[in-house]
């Protein structure tokens, strides 16, 4: 029991002194290390603060530069969008003009074709391939050519409008993205350490695979702008072409229309002159027919008037031929009677002109009928050209 209560061993005073010195030395050493760490930490904090401030300033500057860059390209895109929208509106106006011009060509073509069909109803010698018909055929060809040209131009215009709208869509999508990017960068520029509800974004540093390079970013907008410029220039050229086509086709149609109208006027005058001459000839033939009828009547009366004298003379000769014997003398009476009979017979034979006169009268009648038929032909031609065709054309052509 006594061994169990044995006192712990005691240290030598020198050991105590050494232990105290070691505690002091260890404490001083730890203090020095702490002071060095505090100094290093303060230097590091100061350095990181300066670096952070410098980096923040550089980032803010970069964000501001980026915002200005986006604004620049956004303004460029807006300018091109405004231009392409304007040119598309101009093309839509030209499209309307083309459609109206195309529609306005259809009825004149129908009229020209109807005129050609109507003129097929001319009769006799008037059914001639004259200048009017030649000009009408040419007018139909001109109108068909104009319709084909306007149709092709309208198709080209529709295609150009489609291309313009495609360029417009690309610009709008690019602008939409630029607007969103600018809003995001505006938000980034507004962020500070004291922004409410700011929090950590652990995966923010991760670079996704769909990032593009700044060069590709610029090229993308450049391509959209170049596409818009190309379609704008094409639209300007097409607009000038359409304006020229509309002007030229209108002039060609007006010129050919006037050529047809002049040909119609000349033809109508020509037919009227011919009809007037025929009517003059008809009046002359009718006068001559009346004269010939009077002549035939006079001839018939003259023949009838000679029948009595010739019968008397012939009966006298017949009676005197029965004188007896020597009384059958060729005396002066007999001589004169024979002479009278011969004279009257000769005069009656001269009346054979009656047959010739009747033949002439028949010829005059045939000539009168022919002239009347020809005048009717001319009247039919005048009705077709002056009434059916010319009035129908006047109701349509209004260049």
Explain what you see.
There is one protein chain. The protein has 399 residues and is mainly alpha-helical. 84% of the residues lie in helices and 0% in strands. The longest helix is centred in the first third of the chain and has 107 residues, at 13-119. The termini are far apart. It is found in: Cytoplasm, Cytoskeleton, Cilium axoneme; Cytoplasm, Cytoskeleton, Flagellum axoneme. Belongs to the tektin family.
Radius of gyration: 63 Å
Terminal CA distance reads 145 Å
How many H/I helices? 5
Mean of all residue-level pLDDT scores: 87
Number of strands: 0
Percent of residues in β-strands: under 5%
Helix content: over 70%
Please outline the major beta sheet: none
Low-pLDDT stretches: none
Structural class: mainly alpha
Order of helices and strands: HHHHH
Q: What general form does the structure show?
A: rod-shaped
């Amino acid at each position: 029991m006594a061994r169990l209560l044995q006192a712990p061993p005691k240290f030598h005073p020198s050991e105590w002194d050494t232990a105290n010195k070691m505690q002091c030395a260890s404490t001083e050493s730890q203090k020095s290390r702490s002071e060095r760490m505090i100094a290093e930490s303060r230097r590091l904090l100061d350095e990181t603060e300066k670096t952070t401030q410098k980096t923040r300033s550089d980032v803010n500057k970069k964000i501001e530069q980026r915002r200005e860059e986006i604004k620049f390209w956004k303004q460029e895109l807006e300018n091109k969008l405004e231009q392409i929208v304007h040119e598309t509106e101009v093309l839509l106006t030209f499209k309307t003009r083309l459609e109206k011009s195309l529609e306005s060509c259809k009825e004149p073509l129908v009229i020209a074709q109807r005129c050609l069909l109507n003129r097929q109803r001319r009769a006799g010698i008037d059914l001639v391939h004259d200048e009017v018909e030649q000009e009408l055929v040419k007018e139909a060809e001109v109108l068909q050519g104009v319709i084909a040209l306007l149709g092709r131009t309208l198709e080209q215009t529709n295609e150009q409008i489609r291309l313009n709208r495609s360029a417009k869509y690309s610009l709008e999508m690019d602008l939409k993205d630029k607007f969103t990017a600018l809003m995001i960068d505006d938000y980034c520029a507004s962020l500070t350490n004291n922004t409410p509800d700011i929090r950590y974004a652990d995966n923010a540093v991760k670079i996704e695979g769909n990032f593009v390079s700044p060069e590709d970013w610029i090229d993308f907008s450049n391509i959209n702008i170049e596409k818009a410029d190309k379609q704008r220039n094409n639209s300007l050229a097409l607009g000038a072409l359409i304006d020229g086509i509309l002007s030229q086709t209108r002039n060609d149609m007006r010129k050919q229309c006037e050529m047809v109208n002049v040909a119609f006027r000349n033809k109508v005058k020509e037919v009227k002159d011919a009809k007037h001459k025929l009517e003059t000839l008809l009046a002359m033939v009718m006068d001559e027919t009346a004269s010939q009828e009077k002549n035939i009547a006079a001839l018939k009366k003259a023949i009838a008037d000679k029948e009595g004298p010739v019968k008397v003379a012939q009966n006298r000769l017949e009676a005197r031929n029965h004188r007896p014997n020597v009384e059958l003398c060729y005396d002066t009476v007999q001589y004169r009677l024979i002479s009278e009979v011969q004279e009257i017979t000769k005069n009656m034979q001269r009346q054979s002109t009656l047959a010739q006169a009747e033949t002439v009268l028949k010829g005059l009648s045939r000539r009168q009928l022919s002239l009347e038929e020809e005048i009717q032909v001319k009247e039919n031609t005048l009705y077709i050209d002056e009434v059916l065709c010319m009035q129908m054309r006047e109701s349509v052509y209004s260049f």
